[in-house]
Design goal:
By secondary structure, this protein is mostly helical. The protein has one domain. The chain is about 55% helix and about 0% strand. The protein is elongated, with a radius of gyration of 26 Å. It starts with 19 loop residues before the first helix and ends with a helix. Belongs to the complex I NDUFB4 subunit family. Keywords: Electron transport, Membrane, Mitochondrion, Mitochondrion inner membrane, Respiratory chain, Transmembrane, Transmembrane helix, Transport. Pfam families: NDUF_B4. Its main location: mitochondrion. This is NADH dehydrogenase [ubiquinone] 1 beta subcomplex subunit 4.
Length: about 80
């Protein structure tokens, strides 16, 4: 199945996602973007390395229990004390 070629309208500009300068880059440029050290560190820090940014403390543990169990206890009290 072939899709028809997009023809820009006279009244509207070409969307940036269809601009050949945006998506039609050389393999060398693609490789340079993929091997950029700062980009690799940033994607690792944002996706795979999540837990080192969170340190469980007594405060966060108590708040987690409060927000996890608190609403259940509240609704139990509301429905059982008619």
């Amino acid at each position: 199945m072939s899709f028809p070629k997009y023809k820009p309208s006279r009244l509207a500009t070409l969307p940036t996602t269809l601009d050949p300068a945006e998506y039609d880059i050389s393999p060398e440029t693609r490789k340079a973007q993929a091997e950029h050290p700062a980009l690799i560190r940033w994607t690792y820090a944002r996706s795979a390395n999540v837990y080192p940014n969170f340190r469980p403390t007594p405060k966060t543990s108590l708040l987690g229990a409060l927000f996890g169990i608190g609403p259940l206890l509240f609704w139990y009290y509301v429905f059982k004390t008619d």
